[in-house]
C-alpha cells in the first residue's frame, strides 16, 4: 500500500514540511473542492510563482504521513511584511480540522520571525469564500481591496482562539 492510500484520521499530527522532489507529485495532485477553485490558485501555479519570488516561503501540510494541503507566505523581514499568499486543504481532507491546526502552526511560525507584528491575507469574496475561516483565527477586514480581493489583518499580539 502506498503512502498516498493511507487515510489520516481526525487525530493525526499536523506538520508543515518542505516540498521536495520526493513529494512534489503528491502536492501537485492536491485539489480543493470544485466550488472552491475560484478562491485559490492550484499548487502548480503557486510553486512556480514561489520559485520566482525570493521572499516566498511554502510548505506542504501533512496529517501524519499524508500530504493534505499547501501553504505559502510572502516574507519580508526588512519591512516586517508578512502575507499569507496561499492556503489550501484538499477537498478529501476538509472538515477534519487539519486546516485549523495548520493555520495555528503557520501563525506561530510567523510570530517567530523578525519584527512580525501582523499577518495579512486576502481572499476573493463570494459564496463559499474562506473569509469565515480567517475570521475564526482573529483576522479582521481592513476595508482595503487589492485586485478584487479583500484584505484582512491579524494582530499577532492577540491570543489565538482555542
Largest sheet: 7 strands, mixed
Low-confidence stretches: none
From the alpha carbons, calculate the radius of gyration and give it in angstroms.
Answer: 15 Å
Total beta strands: 7
Helical segment count: 4
Overall average pLDDT: 92
Helix-strand string: EHHEEEHEHEE
How is the largest sheet built, in terms of strand order?
1-2-3-4-5-7-6
Structural class: alpha+beta
The share of residues in extended strands comes to 25-35%
What is the helical fraction, as a range of percent?
10-25%
What distance separates the N and C termini? Answer: 36 Å
Shape: globular
Question: What do these coordinates show?
Answer:
The structure is a single chain. With 162 residues, the protein is an alpha+beta fold. The chain has helices spanning 24-29, 43-51, 98-111, 131-135; strands spanning 14-17, 56-63, 66-76, 81-89, 118-123, 140-146, 149-155. The chain has a 7-stranded mixed β-sheet with strand order 1-2-3-4-5-7-6. It is globular, with a radius of gyration of 15 Å.
Question: What are its keywords?
Answer:
single chain, 21% helix, alpha+beta, 4 helices, 7 strands
Amino acid at each position: 500500500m502506498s503512502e498516498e492510500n493511507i487515510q489520516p484520521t481526525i487525530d493525526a499530527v499536523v506538520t508543515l514540511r518542505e516540498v521536495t522532489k520526493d513529494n512534489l507529485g503528491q502536492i501537485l495532485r492536491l485539489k480543493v473542492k470544485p466550488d472552491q477553485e475560484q478562491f485559490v490558485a492550484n499548487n502548480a501555479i503557486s510553486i512556480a510563482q514561489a520559485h520566482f519570488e525570493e521572499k516566498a516561503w511554502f510548505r506542504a501540510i501533512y496529517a501524519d504521513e499524508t500530504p493534505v494541503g499547501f501553504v505559502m507566505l510572502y516574507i519580508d523581514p526588512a519591512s516586517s511584511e508578512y502575507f499569507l499568499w496561499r492556503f489550501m486543504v484538499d477537498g478529501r481532507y476538509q472538515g477534519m480540522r487539519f486546516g485549523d491546526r495548520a493555520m495555528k502552526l503557520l501563525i506561530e511560525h510567523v510570530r517567530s520571525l523578525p519584527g512580525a507584528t501582523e499577518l495579512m491575507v486576502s481572499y476573493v469574496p463570494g459564496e463559499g469564500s474562506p473569509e469565515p475561516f480567517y475570521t475564526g483565527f482573529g483576522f479582521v477586514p481592513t476595508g482595503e481591496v487589492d485586485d478584487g480581493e479583500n484584505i484582512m489583518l491579524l494582530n499577532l499580539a492577540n491570543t489565538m482562539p482555542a
